[in-house]
């Protein structure tokens, strides 16, 4: 982290003393994160791919449709095994799924050689979309975009290779969520924005919001009796009896769901405080905090309804289905499947709202630390003729 005082027109930098303090705080957080990870580290990673292991001689394959009948049956060729000839695809039985010759599908090959339809293969379209996304991010954001993408890869790696196995292993869901959040945010923020005091300010503010979110999530899930098995995936986990605490999965999911929005808000607030400090080096920490919060209030207002509509979009099919029963709005919002989304929205929004003033306050202290107070310069008016 750079040290020294800023001159007028320059971006303010933290002093050496403040940089050292921030580094120590981050070091303590990293140490606690590592200790938490060790405490809930999974002993068994065998859950990964366990349902793909077919003991009865069946296997999952990718196939290309050749012919399709009216009932959804037809013939297909297994990709990579064209020399073995065509295989019969059993009738699907779902009129909403319409196959056409040339469609690439995911199917279960039975011992008889027949295929049972599972899903469409979407790998290539999604791969091209991902490539376009990566190219645009790097083209527009340059090295910061590349750093953000690398941080995203690391964050998803943490979720897939630590969070998921740890939940299957029965670890404490709250600790798992906090460790995942702290570790993923560390990679995301410092790779995207660099190791400096402004990034550390955003990191500390995000962690503060994350801690509030975690505490509220634990209380809300328990008091609201959110059981977690009403969703299709939750029911599948319960069916396969993996020893997973579904309420713990709900808690961990609520903690992780707000990371992206929290990160966006805190980075923006930290940048706003730094720019204000650069433009007005005469401002004290309270004035800087007050002016930064003017920006923060607008950001809170816009982000809160962004979160709400994001969850409404995700839960729209469920809302449509529940509305068919004709129950009142109050009853609908408190049903198990809708209540999870409502609680997730409210808890995430509370953490977001509190993260803004906390980040702004930290940034104001860091920007104004160890610099002499400069009084505003009064404009010199020309003498009257």
Features:
OB fold (Dihydrolipoamide Acetyltransferase, E2P); Multidrug efflux transporter AcrB transmembrane fold; 385 residues
Description:
With 385 residues, this protein is of the alpha+beta class. It has two domains: 223 residues, Up-down Bundle (Multidrug efflux transporter AcrB transmembrane fold); 66 residues, OB fold (Dihydrolipoamide Acetyltransferase, E2P), CATH 2.40.50. The chain has eleven helices and five strands. It has a five-stranded antiparallel sheet with strand order 3-2-1-4-5, with no helix packed on it. 31% of the residues are buried. The N terminus is likely disordered.
H/E element string?
A: HEEEEEHHHHHHHHHH
CATH level-3 fold name of the largest domain: Multidrug efflux transporter AcrB transmembrane fold
Give the fraction of residues assigned to helices: 55-70%
**Low-pLDDT regions:** 1-10, 373-380
Strand order of the largest sheet: 3-2-1-4-5
* CATH architect. name of the largest domain: Up-down Bundle
Overall radius of gyration:
27 Å
Dominant shape? elongated
Our estimate of the beta-strand percent is: 5-15%
Summary?
Helices cover 61% and strands 8% of the residues.
Topology:
Layout (H helix, E strand, L loop, with lengths): L15 H24 L19 E10 L5 E5 L8 E3 L14 E6 L5 E6 L2 H46 L4 H21 L3 H27 L8 H8 L6 H12 L1 H21 L5 H30 L1 H8 L5 H5 L2 H33 L17
Antiparallel strand pairs: 1-2, 1-4, 2-3, 4-5
